[in-house]
Amino acid sequence: xxxxxxxxxxxxxxxxxxxxxxxxxxxxxxxxxxxxxxxxxxxxxxxxxxxxxxxxxxxxxxxxxxxxxxxxxxxxxxxxxxxxxxxxxxxxxxxxxxxxxxxxxxxxxxxxxxxxxxxxxxxxxxxxxxxxxxxxxxxxxxxxxxxxxxxx
Length: 152
Description:
There is one protein chain. With 152 residues, the protein is an alpha+beta fold. It has one domain (5-144): CBS-domain (Roll). The protein is 43% helix and 17% strand. It has 6 helices and 5 strands, in the order αβαββαααββα. The chain has helices spanning 5-8, 25-35, 55-65, 74-77, 91-101, 120-144, and strands at residues 19-20, 39-43, 49-54, 105-110, 113-119. A hairpin with a 2-residue loop joins β4 and β5. The chain is elongated. The model has no long low-confidence stretch (mean pLDDT 89). Keywords: CBS domain. It holds the Pfam family CBS.
C-alpha cells in the first residue's frame, strides 16, 4: 500500500484559504501573495467547490485582458470541472491525476465540502522525505547487521 494524501499532509500547515465566485481578482492575487500559496478554491453560494484559481489562471487573465484584469472576478477566470482528491487517495494516483490534467493543485473534498488542497510540491516533498528515510534505514540495516561485507 502506498501513502495517502493525509500522510503527505501530516506535517503541513493545513489552513485553508478560499474565495467566493464574486471575489475580485486583485483580492485573490493579494491573498495568494500574502500567504505564499499557488492556488485557491472558489466556493459557490452553498459553500461547495465551484472552481479553482491558480497562478496560471491569473497570468492567463492578465494576458487576455491586460489592465482590465482588475475588474474580473473569480467566476470569470477560475478553472472549472477540475479533478479533486480525498484524504485517503494514494498519492501516486494523485500525482498521476495532476499529470494527466496538467494541474499543480487539487482540492481535497469530503462529503461535498472542500477541506484542503494538495500541491505537486507537497507530493514531491513527501516522496523525497520517504526516499531519504528508506535509504537511511537500508544503510542502518547493512551497517548494523552481519550482511555488511566491509566494516566501517
